[in-house]
Amino acid sequence: MSASMQPRTTNAYYLQAVLSFALATAALAIGIVYLPVDPWMRGFLAVGLLYEITAAFTLAKVIRDRQEVGEIASRVDQARLDKLLAEHDPFRVDGI
C-alpha cells in the first residue's frame, strides 16, 4: 500500500477525539477538586489522574509504533516480490 493510500482520519474525527479527551479529563479533575475529602486524598487522586493520562499516551504510542513496524516489513517484502517478478522471464530457458 503506498503512502497516499493509507487511511487517514477526518478532521471531524480528530476534533471529536481531542474534545472527548479534554472533556473527560476536565470532568474528572473537577470531580477531584469538589470531592469532599482531605487535601492529601485529593492530591493522591490528582497524581493518579496524571499517571493514567501519561499511561494512555504511552500505550497509544507503543501501539502505533508496532503498527508502523509491521507496515514497513510488509513494504520491504512487497518490494522484494516486485523485484523478483520484474526479473523473472517466463520464456528464458536455463542451460541452453
TrEMBL record:
It holds the Pfam family YiaAB. GO terms for cellular component: plasma membrane. The keyword Transmembrane applies. Residues 13-65 form the YiaAB two helix domain. This is YiaAB two helix domain-containing protein. Keywords: Membrane, Transmembrane, Transmembrane helix. One of its GO terms (biological process) is DNA damage response. It comes from Kitasatospora gansuensis. The keyword Secreted does not apply. The chain crosses the membrane at residues 12-34, 40-60. It comes from the Bacteria.
